[in-house]
Known about the structure:
heterodimer; A: alpha+beta; 5-stranded antiparallel beta sheet; 7 helices; about 20% helix; elongated; B: 5-stranded antiparallel beta sheet
Amino acid sequence: MRRTGSARGVVLAVLALLATMPAWANDDIDFYQTADRTEVGSDDTFRLTVVVVDPPSDAQVKLPESEDFEVLSSSRGSQRSISLSGGGPAVIQDVTRYVLVMRATRAGRLKIPPAELTARGKTYRTQPVEIAVRTGRLGAPSGQSSRGSQLPDPFANTPSTRPDPLADELEEDEPTIPRGDSDLFLRASLDRDDVYVGEQVTLSLYIYSRVDLSSVDSVTMPKLEGFWTEEVESPTQLSGEQKIVDGVPYRAYLLRRRAIFPVRPGALSITPAEADITTGFLFAGHRVHRVSNALKVKVKALPPGAPAGMSNAHVGNWRLSMDVSQTRVELGQPVTVKVILEGVGNVKNVTPPKLTGPAALKIYDPTTTDKVAPQRNRVQGRRVVEYLVMPQRTGTFTLPALEFPYFDPRLESYEVARTDPVTITVEAGAGGVSALPASPSQVADAANEQKNVLTAGGLRPVRYQARFVAPSEPPWRRAFFVPAVLAPVGLLLGLALIGGVRGRLATRTEADRGRQQAKAARRRLAEAEKLQGGANVGAFYGEVEKALHGFLEARLGMPVGGLTREVLAERLTHAGADAERRSRVLFVLEACDIGRYGGGGNPAERQKVMDAAAAAMEGWA
Amino acid sequence: MSGYYTPEEAQDVFLKANEAYAREDYAAAQTGYEKLLSNGHGGADVLYNLGTTHLARGDLGRAVLFLEQAKKEGVRAPDLEANLSVARARQVDKVVGATAEEEFLPRVAAATDGAVVAWTFLGTWVAAFALLILWRALRPGRRTAVGVVAALLFAVAIPSGLLLATHAWVDETVHEAVVLAPTLVARELPQPGARSIFEVHAGLKVRLLEETGRFVRIRLPNGLEGWAEREGVAEI
């Protein structure tokens, strides 16, 4: 991994170097080293800058090594400058700088050994640098920001008139690079460590890494005894941001952020967090276990002089309000009253004031709902306590004002959030309420002389008029319904069917009708045969004549009753009847006339007429 | 209607039950109302009074059951809504979580009156067909007005028929019930020893989904489902 140093530190070092040109500079190659501090703490880092001016092409630099110091970061930079003076030739200078971020491993007056430069067969050495190391942490060198993690700000001198919008943002303390695992370490931090009881402290757990991470498993958060906790941020994916720690660049990954609220005063400890971290990718990765630093919080007790009803959890900035669904109701109609406490602080641990009221207003046990919406890592939201209030009598009643005392840690003073009293007017229902006899237990409030007290604890009374009905079935389940729905459809289909039949009948051919008539005629002839041997000769001949007339009408397609014999013969000829058939027809008709009006004939004659009539009908399709 | 009581006798029983309620003899009041119901003299008023009596006695399950039955039978009345509110406020179970979205068809059925829809459909349907038959019988010159009226009747009959089908479907498939048992255990499977998923208490309104043996599958308003014993719930 490439390590880069702070450019600002390098510049400062070079300027210091140029101001006091060291006497140990070599004759032909400028080669020297300098530290940005001469006195450091054992936990502090400092920068050692090794400079080579105009190094030969084959120059090899060996940076100083010592067991008394660990190198946390190193970087190398080159610079070429051209200077023109007095019309002379241009002077070109190559400057190479090595910047080491170092930390002492022990206290004492320690010496950084010289750096070595090998070139042209010669070895050049810088002077050693002596550093006074004290135990602990001395802080940043003078002239340098105490927050060494800040990168140089090019607009640092620009006056700013805008207020910082993130002024309320948490400020986490500066981490230190642990010894032994400077490439990857776990760090827990607090935004503040001196708070009041019930005031929020934000605990953040970060991984600082200079190697690639692939996953973080089984994070064990600290045991937070003595704190009420609320999750503020819990990223599901690793997302790093660049951070400079003691001049060393890291990627910082947030693992968890929790709001913790101390519940008792004193010095409270937060145990270290732990995590298993997998570095690298695929088969090259390996798993390491890291333990974070432990923390301490100094918790101050709330100052004396707390108002009545004050609780340790009531710390923050709160507003109290009351929302009543309606202020004018009918007797027996419920009213919903919401007591709303909203603000910044431990929303889930505050207790809004209890709603009370006169005996005429029965107040049922409430339900509580919370809505927590942290903003800028500050826990805030609203807690709503909803009451059902059931008026027991008519009249005007007052729900008293509510008060919620709390401690504001910013103002460091006690405040009280208040609501106004609410007046509820209860009217008699429209005919629904009766003056029922009340038992003494129900008339608890003797001051109220209203008589219409409901029985059974606020219930609407029973009804005194009833309309008795049998259990009803829906109309569509009654027996008639489906037939009634289907009947019109069936009727329409029936009519359509009849119409179709009629139409079909209307389109039957004349030939069909003729065939039917001929068939009827033959049946009639068969009837006449039965009369042949009877005494009524006229009837026999009449039947034969009718049969033949019917047959002829069927074949000719016209009535033949009124036709003369000549005209009938013509029609028969026109209809295609041959001479023999014509003569038979005429014979039969003649014989029938004679038989009916002339007194009959013998049976042989009748048989002959029958045979002639049958022969006239046969074979005429 | 059953002929067990004459209207006068039924009114007498009703008034006596009311008097029993007024003197806080809720057991007698309950007996009176139940007699009326069992002998066919029911209706929204008797159901309301019986539900209110159960509520006064503290039997939350039956109180909600009869009040809901009264609500189902009659028009919405302020006293009924008020007593139902009281009953809900006294319930042990506060169902939390996202309310399951009620299906479209049950919502449509709840928003319309099934009887009105049924009669509207039947009337317009029969009249439309009668006019259609008349239209066929008339000569072409006289058909126009009859045809327009028949078309209008069909335009009413077809949507009301669809609405009626919705009511019939909901009536057949959607069954609401009230928990009667003081504590009713809902299990993962319809077996007595199956794992318990949740418990509900008297007065909670649930949906009955299916029935197997002596178990019914219930669904809470927030969509939670489980198998419970049939005796523990009563259909509205």
